[in-house]
Amino acid sequence: MTEEQDHQSNQNQEKDTVDPKAKDNIEEAKEQPADNPLNEESPEKITTPSDQQSSTKKERSTDTKSEPSPTEQSQTEKSKSDKPKSEHTKRPRKKHTKKDQPPEKKEPSPNQPILDHYVKIINKNLSKDAIDDAFVNRSSKELPTIVATPKYYFSIAKLLRDHEELQFHFLSDIHGIDYESHMEIYAYLYSMSRNQSVALKVKLDRENPAISSLAPLWKGASWPENEAYDLLGISFENHPDLKRILLGEDWEGYPLRKDYEPYDVEV
Amino acid sequence: MEWVSGLLASEPSSSNFFTYIFISLPLLSVVLGFVTYAILAERKVLGYIQLRYGPNRTGGKFGLLQTVADVLKLLIKEDTRPKQADRPLFWLAPIIAFVPSFMVLSAIPFTESVVFANFGVGLLYFIAVSGLTTIGILTAGWASNNKYALMGGMRSAAQMISYEIPLLMSLVGVVLFSGSMNLIEIVEQQQYVPYILVQPIGFIIFVIAATAELNRIPFDLPEAESELIAGYHVEYSGFRFAFFMLAEYVYLFAMSALITVLFLGGWQPIPGLGFIPDFVWFAIKFSIVVYMFMWIRATWPRLRADQLMEFGWKILLPAAMANIFLSAIVKELFF
Amino acid sequence: MIRTEEMLLNVGPQHPSTHGVFRLVVKVDGEIIKEATPVIGYLHRGTEKLAEDLQYTQIIPYTDRMDYLSAMTNNYVICHAVETLMDLEVPERAEYLRIIAMELGRIASHLVWYGTYLMDIGTTSPFLYAFREREMIINLLNELCGARLTFNYMRIGGVKWDAPEGWIDKVREFIPYMREQLDGYHEFVTGNEIFLNRVKGVGQYTQEEAIQYSLSGANLRCTGIAYDLRKAEPYSIYHRFEFDIPVGETGDAWARYQCRMAEMAESLKILEQAVEQFPEDGKIMGKVPRIIKPPKGEVYVRIESPRGEIGCYIASEGKKTPYRLKFRRPSFYNLQILPKLLEGENMANLIAILGGVDIVLGEVDG
Questions:
Q1: Could you tell me the fold of the domain covering C44-328?
Q2: In Å, how far is A204's CA from the nearest CA of chain C?
Q3: pLDDT tens digit sequence for A143-156
Q4: So where are chain A's domains?
Q5: Cross-chain Cβ contact B304/C346 below 8 Å
Q6: Residue ranges of the alpha helices (H) in C17-91?
Q7: Cβ–Cβ of A223/C332 closer than 8 Å?
Q8: Does the domain at residues A112-237 carry the CATH identifier 3.30.460.80?
Q9: Buried-most residue among A106, B239, C91, C315 (CB within 10 A)?
Q10: Strand order in C32-39's β-sheet?
Q11: Tens digits of per-residue pLDDT, C193-236?
């Protein structure tokens, strides 16, 4: 099947699934007034062996949703219904699986103690309010994620790099994201000595996104930050050489912002 | 050849003038023919070494007319000149580079009888005149008003100065043994033993320095394709470019001929095989030298400018000097 | 006293040794570089922006065009990211096909590097030798997926095509042949005095600097850090294979050359094992929903591409298209160290250093 056909059938498929989804939503709303696992304990007993397998598969993905997600949490419930459905006939069973998952949510991530440890160190060395939020991103290979407050973003990064129990010397990636309500910086740090990773995030004001640069800590952050400046318009303070690295200084607008108007509308 | 000598001694006249031209025309055509096929041969040899065919369309299976077609193309190409170029120098540079390459040919004896000018100091003449080409290259680099070309020109000048000295010094040994600077006499001295056996160090130094003089890999810094794009001739097109190209290959011809004459015994046959005509001997030895140059080109990387200088002044020059002393001692003791 | 002046030289965007449209504004004093400023973006196509309007499967061909010399690893990283996010299982046979394709691609990519690097340094023949072998790899991959450069082979949850009959045997035959050729390369180039002089001590940096600049791949390993994501964070089924991480010691162009050459040999080792273990039959596509809609969430995965650590970040809102897609492009990161390396070097070293970093401009510009 060619690419195009694929998509066409995808679209058709989608139309078919619109209604059931809505139903799901209603049902779920009834069944799960809150993310209270106690409510859902009972359906687990209904699980057939075949279901169990698929449920383990889905385990991680649902768990993420229970975690404070990067975007507005209000959408979390809705997105549950968007879970991929392969065949119509199996839909009823799927519903059961969905209910089976919550109990597994209680199982904490293996990385939870690690994250707690990080948080403890940061709180001890910096301030109680240095961290906005901290959670294990279960859909991203159990990645400990720390959301810093803008004020402490730089010092947390510095601490993560220099503290002898953390040693995140390697900056793997840093980039910005435009959630229409706010901007976000996502930095992925890796410790070679400990073979551990951590994601450091910070939420920025969308109207005037500015944050201190990590380039003084990692020279390798210089260009990626330039890229974020270029494509998203996030300005970095104390950056040694902030410039529009890819598009050039005369480019109007920031293409990766969601409200960007392409220069040529036809394209 | 007495006739030529008589001609040289005679009063200048218009008939003499035309006689000269008619005598030199065959040489010119031989050289141009060589250049045509040397380029083809180089491409074929490179192709062979690099697992490809080389030219194989124009002029039959072996691309025999490829170079002819290339030259024709260059002739009819537009002659571009950068706006800011130094016009007279830009125009003059290819000629300065090209003319000496043909002038040196007159001194080279191809066989005992085929020699155009039998100088007493043929060797000196060759080296002196060939050095002039550098000026052409430097001029081209300067006149192009291009930074890459300028760098190429500068590199070329530095390189020529550094390698001209060991080139000359390596020849002193040959002159010591032969007792002459006349190329024909030098060849005649090698009737039994070619000088490559008597002067192995001198031979190696000369080949290295000659490669540098020819601007060929590993010493092709003035035109280093990957660094300076094309170096001094980056702004030249059409026939002016062809002049540089031609000069390069004529020098290849001349240098290979000189090496044949100085170290491989020129037209002298290997003892016992004297029935093969002398020009065949010359051609065989000459081809081996040319092939060696092509082989080197296909296999070696390029030196860096500072390494080139270091090599020239710190290794080649002392070695050449030591060779002179060694030759003098050997000559004094055994000959 | 002669008055001297610094000269501003534009290396590129049309220069034979920048391997693409890359511009380097160099301030030179004679041939000594005082300052070098890389200018990039000539090949920026806005892959990340385009991806926001594309379904996940549709993004895969765009990844081919980033690092066009090793499209397989790019294919893999996006598929791997989506699979991680959706927690999909990939059938074993598909994993083996992916590994074989990726390792073949790695060798092909290193071969191009080997050839072009030697060409930068001034010898043309190795380029053609390397391309002979690369041609064979490309023919193999062509048989597998019908494309020679932009493969578009992998799909979320598996691969598009199964190996044609006898293909695995062809790969098996290729391995000893390639080993022999690798020995030939070493014989031809590795011991050459001129080559050694050109690369030894050129573009040298320390371990700390390499980490500071977020270098990855052979550019990092040449300083002696044995960091390879195939070992550090085994993805796919790399944990099943035995191979070493080649490391250099000196952190110069010579160490990088040795690393990359050794990596080819290691890839051959992996290929050999993968071909031996290749499952007789099995599915090549896992259970994948027809519409790929990853749940809401974000994911960042990284894998080892021939040029270093390639990462893929997806922020999903639970729709058919990603909310934000970001590639950590190794060439982009690796290139940052260039101005530092070039300072005080001469023009010839510029080429040797730039070539040694091994960049693909499609990837630098995204």
A1: Cytochrome-c3 Hydrogenase; chain B (1.10.645)
A2: 16
A3: 888 888 888 888 88
A4: 112-237
A5: yes
A6: 47-51, 56-64, 71-86
A7: yes
A8: yes
A9: C315
A10: C7-11, C23-29, C32-39
A11: 888 888 888 888 888 888 888 888 888 888 988 888 888 888 88
